[in-house]
Structures are given as C-alpha cells and as structure tokens.
Structure prediction request, 411 residues.
Amino acid sequence: MVGVSTIVGDMPKYERIPESALSLVTNSPSAPTGYGVQAQILVERMMRHGMKVAVQSNYGLEGSFERIKTKHGYVDHYPKGYKPYSDDVIPIWSKDFQDKHPQAKHALMTLYDVWVYNNMDYEGDIIAYVPLDHVTMPPLVKKFLERPNVIPVAMSLHGQRQMNERGIKNHYAPHAFDKNIYKPTYEIQGVPTRKFMGIDDDDFLISMVFANKSNRVLHRKAISEALSGINLWRTQMKPDRKVKIYLHTEPTAVFGGFDIPRLIEAVGIPFDDVIFPDSQRMRVGYPPEELAAFYTASDLVMNATYGEGFGVTSIESQACGAKLLTSNWTASMDLGGPDSYLCDGEPLWNESQGAWWMRPSIASLASGIQLAFEAPRGISQANIDWVQQYEADYVWDTHWLPFFKEYYGTE
Prediction:
C-alpha cells in the first residue's frame, strides 16, 4: 500500500503514529489460541508503526508481570485477574499503563467476546474488536456495543452486516494469517507428513482443527454433527479408498468439552481410522509450521459449526492449499474460496445468549464430503490465491492502519 513504508538501505522505514498508546485485552500473544495468534499479529505491527502497546492477559499469564520482546521494542504484559475475564484488573492495569505515557492518547482494545465486560467500570475509549458468532445478535452484545464510549470493529463481514442492520456505527478488519507460516508445507521434522502421521498417500484424509471446549451439553464446534456426517457418507457412499480422520484437538473432556472417543464409538466410526495429536505437545501447542503441514496433507478440512465470530481455521487451511467444508451462515459463509463447499443447516436456539445459532445438517455435510471426494486431488491454487485478502500485512495496511491513523488523528 502506497505510503505505508519506504526502503532505507536494507531496512523498511514505516510511517509512525505518534503519541498513540493502546492496551490490548485478550489472550497472551504467546498462547496457542486463535486470539493469541491474532494478538501476536496485531502487536508486532502496532509496534513497528511506533504505537506504545501493552497487553492485558485474560488467559496465558498469571501471577507475574513480564515484558514481551518484539522486533520493534518491548511490550508491557499484565497478568490476568481473579475474575474469569479479568475485568477486575482491566481498569487498574490501564491506569498504570497510562501513567507511564502521560502525553499519549490512550485507548483500551478488547479482542474477545464483549458481553463478558458489560459490568466493567471503564470510562475511556474502548475499541471493541468484536466476534459476532450467532445468526442473530445476542442482546448482551448489543448492549455493550451501544455504550457511548465503545468503538466497534467487526472481525467478519457477517458481524459488520449485523451491526449495520441495527444502526451501530462500526469499522471492519478481518482476522489474518501469516503467509510465511501458512503455505503449502510437505514435511514434519524432515519426514513427509503422511508418513509422519502413519497413513498412506492414497488415503482420503479429513481433518478438523478445533478447541474441545463446551458446556458439556452443546458443542459450538458441532463435533457430533461432523462425525455423524462423515459416518453417514462412509456408510452410504462406500468410498473406494481408505478414509482417515485427523482431529487436532484435546480428545478428553478435561477442558469442559466432549469425551470424543466415546462420541466416536457412539457414531460408529472405527476408532483405528481416527488420529489424534500427541497429548503432551497439544497442551503447549504444536508449532504452527506443523499445523500447516497437516492442512496441506488433508484432502478436506471441515469447519462447519453452529456459529463463528471468524473461524481462522478456514483461512489458514486454504492458505496451505486445502479444500474446505464450512457453514453457510455467520462468518463462515464469507470465508470459502473457489474450492470450498458450504453446508446447510437448521436454526438452533441458544438460551444462554438469547440468540439463534444454526445446526449443520448431517445429510448436507455428507453431500459436501462426497463433492470433495470426487474433486481432483492435490492442493488448490485457487484457494491459495483467493485467501490472500486475509494475509496479515494486507489486512493491516488495508484495514487497521487507516483505522488507527484516523483514531489518533494523524491523517
């Protein structure tokens, strides 16, 4: 983008946003979570444009302060509080950071569900980078976004549409992926990925990447529907190739999710056909380069859920050349490239939020899998090309940099 940087010697010189300070409330940038990854992407770019940045952790740092080293300086990292979402310490840490930079214009930015902060007493500007993961807007989300000191930023086109329909002024900046990591990757630790996984090159590999967290009754990631769709397809279509299923998640209910081995047995899928990641490595997070290799090796990545605020699995997998089966609602409906398949569903009421999700149709999932099975094998260059609109530097230059320049009054 013209004006973002110039080359001085061998180093780019980025335009600066002077006297700007921001406290980002989210998962720690080092945490192997979707929010943690997005925080890392944002913090690095904020710093390179001269913004003063602090991170307030609601997950990933507890009991101590630290400083995060970036390529462009250090970031103050404040620990989580006693309350689940740290709203007991957000005003305290914000005041501490403001006192360190009294000449700068300050904003608090949330990268998390906003309804959890409705009772937080904070009078300064709040940039709410908000996920909207229901088909209808939950009342508590609407209540927060209508606060006079809140500046909403939609992370999906679906979220922007929802706010526009309700007259809530907003900006738009989608989640992003690092193109240096998420690209076609064919080996893990020097071994071809499928050999590393113990499966044959001819096997039809279906992969899912998700957090196994729920209320033990409903699972937003629709894992029971996904496995049921796979089994319906297998039993009805009787594919002429061996089918393997890779579930990149914690298989037990230790985090409040489902007992997935029990679910696999109940659905009727042979357990020997399901692959899980190493449990110890999963606790601290696989290197993202290995996740890119899993995506590349997959014939199909499934990410069809009850609702997504964004759904970063969809863009990461396509950046690696994978074909995608996802939902035709919420953020997911806008994230499928040319070699993607959208499933249908039916309304599902979420009483706790007072809003509607959609439940994926098992028959529609089976139909989507069959389309992927019949498609030519190999990576999809069409998906790789299409998804570059979500590449991290492009998203920053196109969406975030103009937003921050306007907010801090530098243009």
In short: The mean pLDDT is 95. The chain has 13 helices and 20 strands.
